[in-house]
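Here is the promised in-class demo. Please do not try to memorize the tokens; focus on the logic of going from shape to residues.
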């Protein structure tokens, strides 16, 4: 299996906290998770591989700004959970995503599958993508290495977000890599060890 995960931009410790865009695929085709805002830069990492789909973990503008620009080259569909449609329209007025994701939905690329896990809280339509074949979970803003991610200095629904992490994500195999929308990666095992402390701390901000 030569299916792999690429990250754009490449991790730069101390660099600007840009959105992590994740690419899952082989030498022929890729799925893009969270296109961010820099389509031209992203295409350097995509190369001439066919983009099969552009998946948005949620509707916040910094994560979805370049969605159509990235999708258009290969006429790929853009996927979003319908509960984030109104947020999405702030970035893309008058233009809806092509695929309405739902919990349990599956995308296939190269020889692996990505399963949609609805994990509301950060936004009503936040999703994670689980790739059992590669032992990886793409968490967007649901879960960063330091815990639940806030938005603009506050937690839209902290209790629900923690519940989604505890119920839906920590049930995955402990050695699963957690690949978030910002910052460094972690694992399910590490997150599980920290989870009680996150619950006890409540909605405090900090990385
Ligand atoms: Zn973000
Ligand atoms: Zn967000």
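The designed amino acids, position by position:
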């Amino acid at each position: 299996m030569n299916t792999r995960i690429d990250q754009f931009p490449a991790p730069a410790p101390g660099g600007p906290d840009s959105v992590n865009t994740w690419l899952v695929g082989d030498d022929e085709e890729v799925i893009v998770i969270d296109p961010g805002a820099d389509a031209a830069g992203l295409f350097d990492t995509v190369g001439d591989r066919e983009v099969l789909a552009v998946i948005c973990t949620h509707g916040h503008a910094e994560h979805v700004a370049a969605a159509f620009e990235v999708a258009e080259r290969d006429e790929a569909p853009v996927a979003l959970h319908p509960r984030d449609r109104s947020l999405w329209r702030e970035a893309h007025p008058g233009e809806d995503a092509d695929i309405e994701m739902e919990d349990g939905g599956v995308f296939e690329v190269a020889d692996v599958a990505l399963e949609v896990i609805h994990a509301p809280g950060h936004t009503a339509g936040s999703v994670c993508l689980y790739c059992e074949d590669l032992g990886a979970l793409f968490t967007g803003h649901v879960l960063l290495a330091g815990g639940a991610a806030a938005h603009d200095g506050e937690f839209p629904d902290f209790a629900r977000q923690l519940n989604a992490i505890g119920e839906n994500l920590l049930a995955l195999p402990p050695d699963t890599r957690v690949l978030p929308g910002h910052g460094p990666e972690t694992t399910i095992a590490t997150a599980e060890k920290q989870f009680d402390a996150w619950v006890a701390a409540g909605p405090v901000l900090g990385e």
